[in-house]
Amino acid sequence: MKTIFISVLCVLFSGILLNCHVVNSNTSQNTDLHSPVHREWMLITFGAYSKSDLIAKNAKINLTEKQEKGKIKGTAFMGCNSMFFTSEFKNDGGVKISEIGSTLKACQDMKLETDFSKAFRNMTNYSVKGHVLTLSDDDGNQMEFIAADWD
Fold it and tell me: Span of the secretion signal (predicted)?
């Protein structure tokens, strides 16, 4: 009876140790989720659109997904369709936006969404200063975002 009890206890203890090891190995594979771009960002400056127009459309990008192999799968919303993309923010201030797609709803006013999609794919540089993310292209066009969690 004593040997059965010890055997069961050993099996349970081994299971606990294995579970602890699995948890530790998974957390060690996580990338830095505290980088300055890992946030939801509200669009506040873009082309001829006013800040109040952008706020009314709830224009934003979301970069909160886990970074994998240097890339972040992001989403965007400009008032109608949900957009998705892959982004790669480099240490030298370069950014690559690729694999852009969206849902296909037809809305009355899709101008912001169309303009944003065309400009967004051409962004090549980024900077984060305080709570502001600025994306720019090689022609000097910019879009500015403010962190959604900043009051």
Answer: 1-25
Which H/E stretch holds residue 18?
A: helix 2-29
- Whether 149 has a pLDDT exceeding 80, the answer reads yes
* Residue boundaries of the structural domains of the chain: 1-30, 40-147
- The token pair that represents 42 in the structure block: 């509200």
- The phi, psi pair for 35, rounded to 5°, reads -65, 155
State the chain's maximal CA–CA distance in angstroms.
Answer: 81
**From CA 102, how far away is CA 31, in angstroms rounded?**
27
pTM metric for this prediction: 0.77
Two structure tokens written together for 86:
């892959």
Tell me the pLDDT tens digit for each residue of 88-120.
999 999 999 999 999 999 999 999 999 999 999
b/e per residue 19-46 (b: at least 16 CB within 10 A)? eeeeeeeeeeeeeeeeeebbbebbbbeb
For 41-75, write each residue's pLDDT tens digit.
999 999 999 999 999 999 999 999 999 999 999 99
Q: CA 151: distance to chain centroid?
A: 20
Contact criterion met (CB below 8 Å) for 116 and 46: yes
126 token code pair: 């980024």
C-alpha 115: how far from its chain's center? 21
